[in-house]
Amino acid sequence: MRTDLIRRAVAGAVALLPGLLLALPAWAHVQQGQAAGFLNGLRHPVSGLDHVLAMVSVGLWGAQLGAPAIWLLPVTFPLVMAFGGFLGLVGVPLPGVEVGVAASAILLGSLVAAEARPPLWLGATVVGFFAVFHGHAHGTELPAGQSGLLYSVGFVTATGLLHATGIAIGLIHRWAWGRTALRFAGAAVAASGVYFLWRALA
Amino acid sequence: MKRRALVAGACGSLALWPAAAHAHLVTTGLGPVYDGISHLFMTFDDLIPVVALALLAGLNGPTAGRRALFALPVAWLAGGVAGYLSGIAHLPPGVTSMSFLALGTLAAADRRLSPPVVAILAVVMGLVHGWLNGAGIAAAGREATGLVGIAGAIFLLAALVSAGVVALRQPWTRIAVRVAGSWIAAIGLLLLGWSWRGRL
Questions:
Q1: Nearest CA in chain A to B117
Q2: Do A28 and B190 touch (CB under 8 A)?
Q3: What phi and psi values does residue A168 have, to the nearest 5 degrees?
Q4: What pLDDT, on the 0 to 100 scale, is given for residue A21?
């Protein structure tokens, strides 16, 4: 078993060798636009209220559901959202992105308001589905002259921090008044989603 | 066999997608060794994969951590010397995003790997990133001793991070490490898209 794993890893390393055989020059250059790229990435997810409410709702819902959803959702959301961003970057069109983002606020808010407890796979699928829209909408908006890497670092960090904020707020779920407050918050997010949807369709 | 063919296919597609590599060098004014040390901490292309590997090694226990601790800087230095001597970077721009994606995904999945596999991952990553560093240093006409600074900084960072992860006892702290892994993988996926677009 162990020998087999080593053999596979060595085969993978050997397969990388063709990359070493294609010669092109290396360039060194001054890094410009690095900090601006990071700050832009950090700012993008918090620049739109529709995104903020949807991402915080993911954290709120995770806190309502408890383990393992409370950690599964924050692990899967950034990956699926990045996949949405990747689709946008390689030019795969996604129709109705703004409608999808608004619909995510409606559905996630409603789930929090109803304190819904679907099977874990279904919850993860719902969150993942909408994460693609959020990634596609925001992951590709890099201004000219800025670093794609630093933008991505800022973008993923801000998204993760929004989830963490939702989870932190959701910790009030342990008290009866907290459970009620969370459900009201979910209803407010859903109502905001209706407004965003109306604006997207107008 | 099928998995091996898939790995070979993925690597082959990377090899067929070549472009010039852009090495980022830092000038501290304190000499090449300090330039190398600051290079690691100022260059996220190299810093984040080192952290990802240290997280993965830590999740896989002290033996894996110890092997990665020595394998990574030595491979980085060897790759750097080879890249410096050749003076050219043959690697496609998407190759560094593969480090983010592969190591981040493995850390997020908390996949149990044997210490030799972790060491091999460290060697492959060290060779690739070291090669790019060495070629960049040569292309910029800088001294190769900068590689010693980079390798030393990697040793220190990997030791601190992997030892910190090994020492974690609370279940939620292990989950936090996995979340960090998923963030790194997500960054890698976006990075792959940016390199596709030529916006790195």
A1: A6
A2: no
A3: -65, -45
A4: 39
